[in-house]
Amino acid sequence: MQHCRHVEVAAIASRDLTKARSTAALFGIPKAYGSYEQLLADGEIDIVYNPLPNHMHVLWSVKALKAGKHVLCEKPLALSAAELQQLLEASAQHPQLKVMEAFMYRFHPQWRCAKEIVDKGGIGELRTIHSFFSYFNADGGNIRNQTAAGGGGLMDIGCYNISLSRFIFQAEPQRVLGIVEYDPDFGTDRLASGILDFGKGTATFTCSTQLAPYQRVNIFGSTGRIEIEIPFNAPTDQRCKLWHQQGAPIEEIQFVACNQYTIQADEFSVAVLNDTAPPTPLTDAAANIKVIEAVFESVKRNGWVTIR
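RESULT FIELD:
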């Protein structure tokens, strides 16, 4: 964010003032606070970035809105559609303030290129998307392995698989089928696969918190395909690339190294400065969490779940 054109990182807050001060010193941030409340009380702060654990997203985003701050909040925005409703209501009560879920991948040029290819018929009729995202983390002290903090693979990384499918199809799945394996000690989902039925096509995915690290996205159409090499954790110090095939030969498209977090924060800030709609509306976050819930519900029912 310190590389943004339209952002000044003016303050940082922690529950521990010593940690806040040391981090502020490390990055040259002018102000450090020993509580989140103190930062929200600062009248010079316009926007709050909320990267707290999942179970604290709605609570502190609502508090930020009540304090008159715009909010850029990490994904997933809430643990459930019911919890997200609290944020939707708070947002409606403060229509002058912007709120956006921070799905940074959508701002990387490789994703904008992929979507443009699909939208312009570069793979014919979009038929199916296959995506995979995994890492290995068996640390019980990590919030990603704590159920109370909203941990688990679907919330942490499976949300990307679902989001990208909806993003490329520009539609919502009609029904969902899921299968989930839970860690016997943590109780969190460590291996999950799903099928999203969009009617005109499908999206299948697997995500895991206890597999060899890997990520890849393949988008298939009636006459062509797109493969994205590093779809989510796009490196900031090297070129990213995707492959587009419609007939022969296969075209490799490379992108100048960039930081998708920088682009995201800049575009959100521009929406605030110009009083325009955020790049991604809250309705998108609501739709995504409904699909995540449907995957879990499918496991309980052992069958397809219709999304209403």
